[in-house]
Amino acid sequence: MTGKDCCGSNGIAGIGESPRMPARFEFVRHYLLPGAVALALWWLAYRSLLPLAKWLTYHLFGLTEGTRLASAAEFFLYDTPKVLLLLTLVVFAVGIVRSYFTAERARRMLAGKREAAGNVMAALLGIVTPFCSCSAVPLFIGFVTAGVPLGVTFSFLISAPMVNEIALVLLFGLFGWKIAALYLGTGLAIAMIAGWTIGRIKMERYVEPWVYEAIGTAGQGGLDEQIPFADRIRHGLDAVRDIVGRVWIYVAVGIAVGAGIHGYVPENFMASFMGKGAWWSVPLSVLIGIPMYSNAAGIIPIVEALLGKGAALGTVLAFMMSVIALSLPEMIILRKVLRPQLIATFAGVVGLGIMIVGYLFNAIM
Question: How many domains does the chain contain in total?
Fold first, then answer.
């Protein structure tokens, strides 16, 4: 027996070699410390936004403080990077979460559930599962062909766009945790009750027949649950590039509209049009919101500006919910799998829930 056999093959480190670092220290060195540094830099950048916006507005551009143009410019220069910073942070974090929890896994979990429990679970899963109007058709087909009840499917389709992580984080960043929590609770309630209602009235006959004949999973597979954490980090970065890369223009346009409202629209006009006093303001806001096409990132800056001009919270939230959850483009896409009677029922039930939320918020806030 040689020395090499005694030492090398039994894992004893030789000269110039170092023992393998324990996994927890590897995690701290490669992920925790760099993450802490990145988060500290993010926080410093976030805290610097307001003084930077003021410096750009009043020193670099030389605008006169107190004018409408200066007010609109400061709003735009402050809110645009603020929303994008918030968006980047939450999309990265949720991208990592979604590497553990995918739409395919949600589909498997919902299949075979009792309808009432399924409505609750579907609404909760909608918060963390990726969804947009372009994925409405494959998601709907995948859920139905997996045996998920129609009402449960609608609970998911309502919750996913309306109560998504982008909406919640931006609401928290702009208005505080109370508004974000109220929006979360009421949005989930609408998704659960609307899905349950659609399931009770048995409208399966208004789903296009070819949907039930479809076979397969509609391409909703996700990442391997056993992948290394480094790959999950890359998944978060990919999510930032993909989602922020697609929605930044909506953010900029939404904030530009909000800046115009903030700087130029008279307060008494918005208060009379979207205030508590006019009973018709809530249904009118829902009707105005349906034809619009936007997402949470684009509509929330407009919501901020409307509230700043005296609009009632319930009316504004009803407008926001209708834009996100009842957009006309989404219903046009869903026409590929649903007949008009079911689409009209879906819009009517969800719209009624949104109006109830609007009146409720106006009454208690």
Answer: 1
341 occurs within a structural domain: yes
Note whether 144 and 194 are within 8 A (CB): no
Q: What is the DSSP secondary-structure string of 233-254?
A: HHHHHHHIIIIIHHHHHHHHHH
Cα–Cα distances in angstroms (integers) from residue 354 to residues 24, 104, 171, 357, 362, in the given order = 48, 29, 17, 5, 12
Query: Residue 4 falls within a domain, yes or no?
Result: no
User: What is d(CA 272, CA 267) in angstroms, rounded to the nearest whole number?
Assistant: 9
Give CA–CA dist 56/73, Å, rounded. Answer: 9
- Residue 362: CB partners within 8 Å, gap ≥ 6? 276, 282, 312, 313, 314, 315
pLDDT tens track for 74-111: 888 988 888 788 778 877 876 777 677 655 666 666 66
Predicted model pTM = 0.61
Closest CA to 136 of 154, 118, 117: 154
Residue 29 lies in a domain: no
Q: Does 342 fall in a domain?
A: yes
Which residue range forms the structural domain that includes residue 66? 45-364
Contact 318, 285 (CB under 8 A): yes
